[in-house]
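Example (one chain per record):
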Amino acid sequence: MTRPIVFRDLLTGGWEEADFEPFRKGVTIHHILKGEPAIALLRYEPGARVPRHRHRGLETILVLEGTQIDDNGAYPAGAMMANPEGSEHSVWSETGCVVLIQWNRPVLILEEEDQG
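Predicted structure:
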Protein backbone atom coordinates (compact mmCIF):
# COMPACT_ATOMS: atom_id res chain seq x y z
CA MET A 1 0.00 0.00 0.00
CA THR A 2 1.34 3.43 -0.96
CA ARG A 3 1.40 5.89 1.91
CA PRO A 4 1.22 9.68 1.74
CA ILE A 5 4.38 11.74 2.20
CA VAL A 6 3.96 14.02 5.22
CA PHE A 7 5.99 17.02 6.39
CA ARG A 8 4.82 18.33 9.75
CA ASP A 9 5.05 22.06 10.49
CA LEU A 10 6.45 22.85 7.04
CA LEU A 11 5.56 26.54 7.37
CA THR A 12 7.45 26.87 10.65
CA GLY A 13 10.76 25.18 9.80
CA GLY A 14 9.66 21.56 9.53
CA TRP A 15 11.92 21.29 6.47
CA GLU A 16 15.12 22.06 8.43
CA GLU A 17 15.95 18.39 9.10
CA ALA A 18 15.54 17.37 5.45
CA ASP A 19 18.60 16.13 3.55
CA PHE A 20 19.50 18.50 0.71
CA GLU A 21 21.82 17.75 -2.22
CA PRO A 22 23.41 20.00 -4.87
CA PHE A 23 21.02 21.20 -7.60
CA ARG A 24 22.55 24.31 -9.22
CA LYS A 25 25.33 26.64 -8.07
CA GLY A 26 24.14 28.01 -4.70
CA VAL A 27 20.88 26.02 -4.76
CA THR A 28 20.26 22.68 -3.04
CA ILE A 29 17.29 20.34 -3.38
CA HIS A 30 15.41 17.85 -1.25
CA HIS A 31 13.30 15.59 -3.47
CA ILE A 32 9.89 14.81 -2.00
CA LEU A 33 8.45 13.13 -5.10
CA LYS A 34 10.47 12.42 -8.25
CA GLY A 35 8.98 12.05 -11.72
CA GLU A 36 6.32 13.97 -13.59
CA PRO A 37 4.87 15.67 -11.63
CA ALA A 38 7.62 16.26 -9.08
CA ILE A 39 7.68 17.96 -5.67
CA ALA A 40 10.77 19.26 -3.87
CA LEU A 41 12.18 21.75 -1.44
CA LEU A 42 14.74 24.19 -2.87
CA ARG A 43 17.12 26.12 -0.63
CA TYR A 44 18.83 29.18 -2.16
CA GLU A 45 22.00 30.62 -0.62
CA PRO A 46 22.16 34.44 -0.56
CA GLY A 47 22.80 35.64 -4.11
CA ALA A 48 22.02 32.27 -5.75
CA ARG A 49 20.09 32.22 -8.99
CA VAL A 50 18.52 29.93 -11.56
CA PRO A 51 19.07 31.19 -15.13
CA ARG A 52 16.29 32.13 -17.52
CA HIS A 53 14.09 29.14 -18.26
CA ARG A 54 10.77 28.22 -19.91
CA HIS A 55 8.13 26.21 -18.13
CA ARG A 56 7.05 23.10 -20.08
CA GLY A 57 4.20 22.50 -17.66
CA LEU A 58 2.64 24.12 -14.61
CA GLU A 59 5.02 25.02 -11.79
CA THR A 60 3.71 26.02 -8.36
CA ILE A 61 5.91 27.59 -5.66
CA LEU A 62 5.24 28.39 -1.99
CA VAL A 63 7.91 30.50 -0.28
CA LEU A 64 8.59 29.03 3.17
CA GLU A 65 11.40 31.32 4.34
CA GLY A 66 13.19 34.39 2.99
CA THR A 67 12.32 36.07 -0.29
CA GLN A 68 12.43 34.64 -3.81
CA ILE A 69 12.69 37.11 -6.69
CA ASP A 70 11.97 36.71 -10.39
CA ASP A 71 11.57 39.02 -13.39
CA ASN A 72 8.06 39.93 -12.20
CA GLY A 73 8.68 40.81 -8.54
CA ALA A 74 9.77 39.77 -5.05
CA TYR A 75 7.88 37.13 -3.09
CA PRO A 76 8.33 36.90 0.70
CA ALA A 77 7.54 33.94 2.95
CA GLY A 78 3.90 32.94 2.55
CA ALA A 79 3.69 33.98 -1.12
CA MET A 80 2.50 31.41 -3.67
CA MET A 81 3.18 31.63 -7.39
CA ALA A 82 1.82 29.58 -10.27
CA ASN A 83 3.93 29.70 -13.43
CA PRO A 84 1.87 28.36 -16.35
CA GLU A 85 3.22 26.31 -19.23
CA GLY A 86 5.07 28.57 -21.68
CA SER A 87 6.01 31.24 -19.13
CA GLU A 88 9.68 32.29 -18.85
CA HIS A 89 11.76 33.95 -16.13
CA SER A 90 15.00 33.99 -14.14
CA VAL A 91 14.85 33.34 -10.38
CA TRP A 92 17.15 34.47 -7.56
CA SER A 93 17.31 35.34 -3.90
CA GLU A 94 19.38 38.21 -2.53
CA THR A 95 19.13 37.05 1.10
CA GLY A 96 18.52 33.31 0.61
CA CYS A 97 15.21 31.46 0.77
CA VAL A 98 13.53 28.07 0.98
CA VAL A 99 10.62 27.18 -1.29
CA LEU A 100 8.28 24.25 -1.78
CA ILE A 101 8.05 23.63 -5.51
CA GLN A 102 5.87 21.38 -7.65
CA TRP A 103 6.34 21.02 -11.39
CA ASN A 104 4.55 18.93 -13.98
CA ARG A 105 7.57 18.70 -16.30
CA PRO A 106 11.20 19.86 -16.02
CA VAL A 107 11.95 23.36 -17.25
CA LEU A 108 13.96 24.17 -20.38
CA ILE A 109 17.04 26.26 -19.47
CA LEU A 110 17.32 29.08 -22.04
CA GLU A 111 20.65 30.61 -21.00
CA GLU A 112 23.32 29.07 -18.83
CA GLU A 113 25.09 31.08 -16.18
CA ASP A 114 28.74 32.00 -16.61
CA GLN A 115 30.48 29.44 -14.40
CA GLY A 116 33.86 31.21 -14.60
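Caption: The two ends are 48 Å apart (CA to CA).
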